[in-house]
Design a protein that fits this description.
heterodimer, A: alpha/beta, Glutaredoxin, 2 domains, 6 helices, about 15% strand, disordered N terminus, B: about 575 residues, mainly beta, Porin, 26-stranded mixed sheet, 3 helices
Chain lengths: ~200, ~575
């Protein structure tokens, strides 16, 4: 076994060398490709881009929305009960402010073994916004490495992360809406005030 | 019981350690998170420190080797990006106070790799992601640690499952390429599991296995796609007996792969997913036979108005889920460490009798959104499990056990109500899973469950929350029938939006557990939108816990845990 460990150490050293060489090659290649990168409206400190498949099997890039809309990334899972308490409120916000340039991207953190239940759950909750499948927890690693559920990331029209929010308890939806309105600016404030007016008069 | 003298001195040491964590601005608890996010010259960096501290009192399991000690765990996550570049680092640290030792009557094997202070860079990652100007081509390159999953996990699934304490990445290189209708993923490296089991304080020695895999997919229009994936695994330590003096490192090699047909919108109303894998398992020892296995999985989704119907079918034949040889790695704590995960078509937390390697059957699930206030689901499944269950073939005489094919019947249903503009809700579900086997169709396993999740919201964020689970269980183990019941109740109230006060009650009549009732209390203070502090005190039931068919055993806990998560 000692011999085996020695071989192992040597192997790891070799692997490290190979990994370093691969890293340099990949970085060089990536740097060369950098010039062809799509012009995402970010100043270099934007929300990191990612690509995931949605429930229809189409690939969705975050960069399709960055710089154009206010984006709420909602990390959820079919096994998360508070998430299912929050989602109807996100759907309501999506419908209310969609025309003002707001979009919710639901990111399902279910693993491959339960991913088949994501669509039925989303339909049961009445979700109409895009739901993306992160069965590898690849995007979770970028935005939510602690794997909190639910976890919300608010991205402003400038493409930068404005704020984050973990968990959901009843009543949080008003604070979520306030953050969305803040990021959308004056037009959304007017829309929110208009929507609130009939309620106030009731 | 030589450590009964441990009292004030160690308590002070624990308190000092706890205060040191707090003083360091990190916090105390089983889980304490501190996050610092910001921008430095165009580079965004988010730091998340997750730290924990707990005091483990006597959990009553009869062993002094997991009692009366304190632990502190630190996880520091740094994630950053600058344009297409991103990086990630996670540093892990652990410290133990008054840990049990040989003087407490603990054997060398019980203490092996346990209660050892550590501080290591656990995960490292450097990546690049970008698209060309047309948006049709893009690439992601990751060097270091990356999560990898192919298809529905039958071939390869290295990911994070918090409930089981699993966090496995592939340390090496991973490249994802997409070009119009074509996409491919290539990954190679060595599995890098999270090394510390917080429940037991034991450290896992890296298995040093080697894994490489390729997945490709071609879109056939907008409605469907076909693909294939293959993975090769070389095990550093072969499974099974290794003759003394022989070095069989990397001698055992598995090859797993198969095709995929994926059409989430084959038509407006129907989606189809089909996946098959074949396994070739070549043992390390010369003269041993190569083994084979297969797995078939299919799912059909039908959208019918307000209803969604999901039909899942599976047929596994001698299918082995790849995992490292755990003989020397403490199987109990790390049994959930595996490199693949077969779709289970089971209820998420369903306890299963044994790994499903020879099983076929199907499940139908219907979800209905009747209105914004009322939703319901119902599910029924039938499986034949040919691994077998021990049944007494001659009741009345001496116990004579024989393995017999089991038939699993598993119906469950639930209803969900929402009111107060969806701020309040109640979810009630229940079901009964039965396994019968043998000619007399003996019930070898029965599992009835009822679950309730209830929230009544009031003005200004105040609420009352109730979560309850009750299980009626039956099992025939080695010819001996065993009935028991267990469950848990959580009662919580939020007197203000930011404060949760909760009481917990776990109960079990399982005689293998140290007691019948486990009482606890929790205080949670929401510091900000993404920051909280949680204090837990009391006892929690141990036992087998399964998530999506992957199971591990947790020890009972009694003591105090303080948890905090901070982000700003």
């Amino acid at each position: 076994m000692i011999a085996s460990r020695a071989v192992l150490v040597a192997l790891r050293a070799r692997l490290a060398q190979v990994a370093l060489l691969a890293a340099l090659a990949a970085l060089a290649a990536a740097a060369g490709c950098g010039g062809s990168q799509a012009g995402v409206a970010t100043g270099g400190a934007s929300a990191p881009d990612f690509a995931l498949r949605d429930l229809d099997g189409q690939t969705v890039h975050l960069s399709d929305y960055l710089g154009k809309k206010v984006v709420l990334l909602n990390f959820w899972a079919t096994w998360c009960t508070p998430c299912q308490g929050e989602i109807p409120h996100l759907e309501a916000l999506h419908r209310k402010f969609g025309a003002d340039g707001f979009v919710v991207l639901g990111i399902a953190m279910d693993g491959p073994e339960t991913i088949a239940t994501v669509l039925p759950t989303a339909r049961r909750l009445g979700v109409s916004y895009p739901v993306l499948l992160d069965e590898e927890t690849r995007v979770v690693g970028l935005y939510n490495p602690k794997l909190d559920a639910p976890f919300n990331v608010f991205i402003g029209r400038d493409g930068n992360i404005a704020s984050t929010r973990q968990g959901y308890t009843a009543g949080d939806e008003s604070q979520i809406e306030a953050e969305v309105v803040r990021l959308l600016g004056a037009a959304a404030k007017a829309a929110a005030a208009k929507a609130a007016a009939p309620r106030a008069s009731e | 019981m030589k450590r009964t003298g441990f009292r004030k001195g160690t308590a002070r040491a624990v308190a000092a350690g706890v205060l040191a964590f707090v003083g360091a601005g990190v916090g105390v608890g089983t889980e304490i998170g501190v996050a610092f996010g910001g921008e430095l010259g165009g580079t965004r960096v988010d730091l998340t420190a997750t730290t924990g501290a707990a005091w483990h009192a006597d959990n009553g399991n009869g062993s002094p080797c997991d009692d009366r000690y304190g632990d502190g765990v630190l996880r520091l996550n740094a994630v950053g990006n600058r344009g297409p570049w991103r990086f990630g680092v996670r540093l892990d640290g652990a410290a133990f106070v008054a840990a049990p030792g040989a003087g407490d009557g603990c054997s060398e094997s019980v203490l092996e790799n346990r209660y050892q202070p550590r501080g290591v860079p656990e995960k490292l990652q450097l990546g690049w992601a970008g698209r060309d100007v047309t948006g049709r081509r893009d690439a992601e390159v990751t060097l270091g640690d990356a999560y990898v999953s192919f298809g529905r996990g039958l071939t390869l699934s290295l990911r994070k499952v918090d409930e089981l304490g699993v966090d496995t990445t592939l340390r090496g290189a991973k490249v994802i390429l997409r070009n119009g209708a074509l996409s491919a993923t290539v990954a190679a490296g060595t599995p890098n599991p999270g090394n510390l089991d917080e429940a037991s304080g034991r450290r896992l020695v890296d298995p040093y296995d080697l894994v490489a895999g390729v997945e490709s997919r071609v879109a056939l229009g907008r409605r469907a796609g076909i693909g294939a994936h293959v993975a090769a695994i070389a095990f550093h330590e072969p499974h099974g007996f290794v003759p003394p003096g022989q070095d069989l490192s990397y001698g055992e090699r598995w090859l797993i792969g198969g095709p995929v047909f994926d059409a989430p919108r084959l038509s407006k109303q129907v989606g189809v997913y089909l996946e098959g894998v074949a396994q070739r398992r070549a043992p390390a020892r010369e003269g041993s036979e190569v083994e084979t296995g297969f797995g078939l999985y299919g799912a059909v989704t039908i959208l019918a108005g307000r209803a969604t119907v999901l039909v899942e079918g599976k047929a596994y034949g001698d299918l082995e889920i790849a995992q490292p040889d755990l003989t020397d790695l403490h199987e109990l704590e790390f049994s959930a460490l595996q490199y693949a995960a077969a779709p289970t078509a089971e209820r998420l937390l369903q306890e299963i009798a044994h790994p499903q390697r020879e099983i076929f059957g199907a499940r139908v699930r219907v979800d209905v959104a009747a209105s914004t206030r009322l939703a319901a689901h119902a599910s029924a499944a039938v499986f034949r499990d040919q691994v077998g269950y021990d049944v007494d073939v001659d009741p009345g005489l001496a116990v004579m056990l024989e393995s017999a094919t089991g038939t699993i019947v598993d119906p469950y249903a639930g209803v969900e109500l929402r009111w107060d503009s969806a701020r309040s809700r109640a979810l009630l579900s229940g079901g009964y899973r039965a396994v019968v086997a043998g000619e007399q169709t003996d019930l070898v396993y029965g599992d009835g469950h009822v679950e309730l999740d209830f929230v009544q919201a009031f003005a200004e964020g105040r609420a009352v929350e109730v979560g309850a689970t009750h299980l009626e269980r039956q099992k025939i183990d080695a010819g001996v029938a065993k009935d028991w019941r267990e469950g848990s109740v959580q009662l919580g109230t939020r007197p203000t939006r930011r404060l949760l006060v909760a009481a917990g009650w776990d109960y079990t009549t399982d005689t293998s557990q140290p007691r019948t009732h486990f009482l606890s209390g929790t205080l949670e203070w929401q510091l900000s939108a993404s920051s909280s502090v949680r204090l837990f005190g009391g006892a929690m039931r141990g036992g087998l816990k399964c998530v999506s068919g992957v199971c591990r055993t947790f020890p009972p806990f009694e003591g105090v845990k303080l948890a905090m998560t901070l982000r700003w």
